[in-house]
Predict the structure.
Amino acid sequence: MKKTHIAAIAAALVASTPMAFAQAKVKVGFMLPATGTFAALGTAIENGFRLYVTEQGGKLAGREVEFVRVDDESDPAKATDNVNKLVKRDNVDVLIGTVHSGVAMAMARVAKESGTILIVPNAGADAVTGPMCAVNIFRSSFSNWQPGYAMGEVVAKKGHKKVVTITWKYAAGDESVKGFKEAFEKGGGQVVKELSLPFPGVEFQALLTEIAATKPDAVYTFFAGGGAVKFVKDYAAAGLKKTIPLYGAGFLTDGTLEAQGADADGLLTTLHYADSLGSARDNAFRLAYAKSYKLQPDVYAVQGYDAAQMLSIGMNAVKGDLKKKAEFAAALQKAKIDSPRGAFSLGKNHNPVQDIYLRQVVGKENKLVSVASKSLTDPGRGCKL
Ligand code: PHB
């Protein structure tokens, strides 16, 4: 028989047998910002995720991975339509997203209704692992409460008594400040003024003037991405950096240092990652990331990488069958995730239980100072799982 005939018969056989489950591609839907103040954060998350998949030879639990993506523009008003594009039009098996807390809440609502597995690779919205928690919803990042709470303890221990907070008026800013305030006031301090502006605004001048007039002992802030670059530069330009110490959730200086330059030098922040952890795991990750993307990784890259690791752990446990949500969740619940940040586990509410580091900006790095809070567990208020 001629070779072409054999090939034709083989092809016909393959076409007529139902495709073995393990061979079907797994469709991963990225819903991330590709434009706006968080665009670079979305890119880092996607890069990190893809790096892990590439390291597994392009497959998870024996299934090839196919990606589809939507630019969510960090716009909560478009979020439900955007996530429905992935779930209903593209029929994704898994949702990965997003950066913005308001958009993530819409994703969680759709994930809960549709039963689609969702792994949140950044957005800290407390509600996602609080009242909205579900068997099929996981986070590879943090809750907004976590870095805020850790910094509240740090600033109280430094002996600062009166603090002004400044942030964007939306879930992430509000909750970061709330976490800070909870620990800071427990430690004997007082938040004397809570300043804010609408997301993603960067008209900081009037607010900086108000800070100068209030003369607090210190300032606590949550800003991220392009907005964080501008805030750090404006804070220094207003002459405040020399007189009123600025503390922040670590997003203030993560992935931003090239653009902030000397204006960021010396800033202290709290986060679940730092640039100089020095572990073998982190060194290998940083090297692989830099080789693949010609960029230094940041916390967002780590969170994307770990979202892929979590998907892989869950898929291996159910042999690629993503309908087995309870088994998928049970596997993740008992897993130790071998993250570049240091191994972490998930709390009952599916949020990372993790060390929060105190870091200081030295040149182009967020250098590790100490562990501010060991194995910090989000309280998961309102989560019934
Ligand atoms: C959020 O909206 O939850 C958010 C956005 C950017 C960050 C961190 C948190 O860097």
